[in-house]
């Protein structure tokens, strides 16, 4: 039996200089159901250009000046580059204050 890969939508919000680098304040990306923040960034780069990845990640980690936050219906949770995302999540990337 062949495994069928399923996908989900994740909403993304960008703040600060990340808006200028990505060319968008909001986006919706399609990623595999087992996706991580790194996969979300890769999907953003596919849609908005290669400049997005180095604006958010250094190698396979979030840049030291960047924060990723999951915003769900009832909570906010800080994430790392290898954190899992869930369908329907909103992930906000922002610069550290």
- SSE sequence, one letter per element: EHEHHEEEEE
Average of the residue pLDDT scores: 92
Described by strand count, sense and barrel closure, the largest sheet is:
5 strands, mixed
Tell the overall outline.
Answer: globular
What order do the strands of the largest sheet run in, or round the barrel if closed?
Answer: 2-1-7-5-6
Rg, alpha carbons:
13 Å
Distance between the termini: 50 Å
Per CATH, the class reads Alpha Beta
Residue windows where pLDDT falls under 50 for at least 5 positions? none
- DSSP helical segment count: 3
Would you give an account of this structure?
This protein is α+β, with helices and mostly antiparallel strands. It has a single domain (7-95), classed as Beta-grasp domain (Ubiquitin-like (UB roll), Roll), CATH 3.10.20.30. The chain has 3 helices and 7 strands; from the N terminus they run βαβααβββββ. The chain has helices spanning 17-22, 37-48, 52-56; strands at 7-14, 26-32, 57-58, 61-62, 66-71, 76-79, 90-95. Strands 2-1-7-5-6 form a 5-stranded mixed sheet. The longest helix has 12 residues, at 37-48. The model has no long low-confidence stretch (mean pLDDT 92).
Write the layout of secondary structure elements.
Layout: E1 7-14, H1 17-22, E2 26-32, H2 37-48, H3 52-56, E3 57-58, E4 61-62, E5 66-71, E6 76-79, E7 90-95
Parallel strand pairs: 1-7
Antiparallel strand pairs: 1-2, 3-4, 5-6, 5-7
